[in-house]
Amino acid sequence: MIECPFCIAEIDDSAVACRHCGRDLTGQIYLLRKVALLQTEVAELTAQFTQTRIVSSSASSVAQPEPARSSGAMVGRDIGALVGLALCPATLLIVAHYLLALHFELPPIALLLATLLIPLPFGYLAITGTTRGLIFWGTLFLITSLVSVLIMGVTTYWMVRLSSDYVPEMEMMLSPLPQTSAEWLQDFRFAFSIFFSFVTGMLLGVLYINARQSNHSKIAVLRTDVALLRRGLVRIVSAQTMERISKYATAISTIASTAGAIYFGISKL
């Protein structure tokens, strides 16, 4: 059946004139037949699409447990990354402080070099080996740095308390935690030195991904983090300046973080 283009009545597809309005359809009959054929095909495709959606929705409802397992595996990987990339460097920093500063009593420069070198590989691995981005690991490494420095102070306190040279009169001069604003500032500077070493490692990871793995799955995460950080920096640096330095932003940031780690570390000497 086809529709008359003049009165929109249904007529037989072999008719050459409309039996309702009497109009001649000789010039239009070919197009009318093609339109009717296309309408039939569209209806069939719509029915197939609807059936496919019903089947796919049924399959997804049956496979509900799979996302739970993948989510559990992701949580497990995140916990493993947190333990390996946050607790391990903190432990190594504390052990280095004990051995270099307290046990062997080496010059402070030895501890400074250790605190500059230990965080680097962990910052690098955090970016190249996990799914998390700069903001997540930056926050975690800042906490790690602060906690490590505080534990170093507690370790120093108890080493002095347990040493053979300890006398009760020394209690007035000892404390496991900083007591004055100057002491707190000194510890914060030391923590920032460690933190900037972590940042340098992370930025080296970003440089590696950008240079060697342009199709790396983490590119989207890093771009999102960089966009957020850049948005915050625009308040300090003009948008035009940020646009000019954006091409070399990661390299410049790597140099700046290294300089910051050295500066804050030297200030503790």
**Average pLDDT figure:** 79
Q: Order of strands across the biggest sheet?
A: 1-2
User: What portion of residues is helical?
Assistant: over 70%
Rough outline: rod-shaped
How many helix segments? 9
Name the structural class. Answer: mainly alpha
Whole-angstrom Rg: 35 Å
What is this structure, in a nutshell?
The protein has 269 residues and is mostly helical. It is built from 9 helices and 2 strands. It has helices at residues 29-62, 65-103, 108-117, 119-128, 134-162, 181-212, 219-233, 239-245, 249-266, and strands at 2-3, 10-11.
Secondary structure elements and their pairing?
Blueprint: E1 2-3, E2 10-11, H1 29-62, H2 65-103, H3 108-117, H4 119-128, H5 134-162, H6 181-212, H7 219-233, H8 239-245, H9 249-266
Antiparallel strand pairs: 1-2
